[in-house]
TrEMBL record:
Residues 1-306 form the Carbohydrate kinase PfkB domain. Belongs to the carbohydrate kinase PfkB family. Keywords: ATP-binding, Kinase, Nucleotide-binding, Transferase. It holds the Pfam family PfkB. This is 5-dehydro-2-deoxygluconokinase. One of its GO terms (molecular function) is ATP binding. It is an enzyme of class 2 (transferase). Its EC number is 2.7.1.92. Signal peptide: none annotated. InterPro entries: PfkB_Carbo_kinase (IPR050306), PfkB_dom (IPR011611), Ribokinase-like (IPR029056). It comes from the Bacteria. SUPFAM superfamilies: Ribokinase-like.
Length: 321
């Protein structure tokens, strides 16, 4: 049985690397795309995963397929498109390791996934279905995403949602907010950045955002806040953690590391937030918070996934104080 199936974008992150020439920017090719990043974390931690999406029939698409296959992620429903190229993103970093994105995605292969290309049996066989909003920016992938989510919901699967808002990929903020609200209506568990939570709820403080998010009947909601750590809530509990200390190099994929690690903890504890104790919930979120911070100490999203043993050791050190 496959534990987690994710649908969405799979692309190349060209991440800025150090150059000896201040006038020349150099970039390193890395696999990217939030849904795939989440699966990479889960697979590295021993969870069986499968990906649904589309890449170009080009050298970048071949690279991405091999990257996922090498991580033991099931790629039977990763479609190769002979007409459209793999989407590219150039990621530049400031002095603090924070990112700016430039996308090359007009008719990118990831936006060209059709409903008929989705293997519904793959969704039927999973426990958790995960998606975001970047597959909802254009047709036909918008219709494909909705079909997959509705099928997963009808099959009684746990729906996981991470908006992964990227302003340059939307015509306007209102369209993105509409898509985020749509995703939340399907979701059982969700992770949003503070910016996303504020956009959706109209609130400013994280605790107020969480209260509004729970009105979507979520079993669990988390807000990641970068240097301010994270906040989380169920209908019974609410909590927060400060940022775990890290020598930040690149924040790419930190939120995906957080969410992948949290889903791992969720699955490891019966996949039911309604029955989990406040103490155990706190442990799961703290572990995810640590993993996210550790991932910022290396470049790239998938290459920066920390070993779970290292994450667990840091958790034990904090717990022992």
């Amino acid at each position: 049985m496959i534990d987690v199936v994710a649908l969405g974008e799979l692309l190349i992150d060209f991440t800025q690397i150090r150059s000896n020439d201040a006038l020349v920017k150099r970039f390193e090719q890395n696999p990217g795309g939030a849904p795939a990043n989440v699966l990479a974390v889960l697979s590295k931690f021993g969870i069986k995963c499968a990906f649904i999406g589309k890449v170009g029939n080009d050298v970048f698409g071949e690279f991405l397929r091999k990257q996922l296959s090498d991580l033991s992620i099931d790629c039977r429903n990763l479609v190769s498109d002979p007409k459209h190229n793999t989407t590219l993103a150039f990621v530049t970093l400031d002095d603090k390791g924070d990112r700016s994105f430039s996308f090359y995605r007009n008719h990118g292969a990831d936006t060209c996934l059709f409903e008929k290309e989705i293997d519904l049996e793959l969704i039927k066989a999973c426990r958790i279905f995960h998606f975001g909003t970047l597959s909802m920016t254009h047709e036909p992938s918008l219709s494909a995403t909705i079909k997959a989510v509705e099928y997963a919901k009808a099959c009684g699967k746990i729906i996981s949602f991470d908006p992964n808002y990227r302003a340059p990929l939307w015509g306007d903020a209102d369209s993105a907010i509409t898509a985020m609200k749509s995703g939340l209506r399907y979701a059982d568990i969700a992770k949003l950045s503070l910016e996303e939570a504020q956009m959706v709820t109209g609130k400013t403080r994280p605790e107020d955002c969480l209260k509004e998010l729970l009105k979507y009947e979520l079993s669990f909601a988390a807000i990641t806040m970068g240097p301010q750590g994270c906040a989380y809530a169920t209908d019974k509990y609410m909590g927060a953690f400060p940022e775990y200390p890290a020598a930040v190099v690149d924040t790419t994929g930190a939120g995906d590391n957080f969410w992948g690690t949290l889903i791992f903890g969720f699955l490891s504890n019966g996949a039911n937030f309604d029955r989990i104790s406040e103490e155990r919930l706190s442990e799961i979120v703290l572990t995810a918070n640590i993993a996210a911070a550790m991932s910022t100490e290396k470049k790239g999203a998938i290459p920066s996934i920390p070993d779970f043993a290292k994450v667990r050791a840091a958790f034990e050190e904090i717990n022992g104080k």
